[in-house]
Amino acid sequence: MIIAAIATLLSAAFVVWIVQGQSSAPVAKDVSFQVQDAANTYADFDLTKDSDQTVMCAVRALNEQYAIVGWNEVTIGEVAPEELNGRTSTHRVPVRTTNEANSVGVDSCWTVD
After folding, report:
1. Tell me, what CATH number does 75's domain have?
2. Does residue 74 register a pLDDT over 50?
3. CA 72 from chain center: how many Å?
4. How many alpha carbons fall within 13 Å on the CB side of residue 87?
5. pLDDT for 76-86, tens place per residue?
6. C-beta neighbour count of 46 within 10 angstroms
7. Does residue 3 fall inside a structural domain?
8. CA pair distance 32, 66, nearest whole angstrom
9. How many CA atoms lie less than 13 Å away from 59 in the CB half-sphere?
10. Whole-prediction pTM value?
11. Parent domain of 80
12. Which helix (H) or strand (E) is 37 found in, with range?
């Protein structure tokens, strides 16, 4: 019975540790994109992060065959309070392309040390 109680407490502590670690991870959500021409596109996305985090996001452009035709990495640090909605801010990132894209969006975001 004592072993089961200890195992339950350890399991609960592990779950709390995982959830707390995930809650501070940056989260990006694609909002829209614009294809200006065959060489220039823009991605609009919302980024939710802690105010003291510096985050790098990779934005990619894909063609009709889902091949990557453009890539840009952008660093986002502190955001002005008037540009925040809670912990979320909106960003527009240019992505140069090698040929015309038909979709543009965030590939991933991660915290920079």
Report:
1. 2.60.40
2. yes
3. 13
4. 12
5. 999 999 999 99
6. 15
7. no
8. 17
9. 32
10. 0.78
11. 26-112
12. strand 27-37
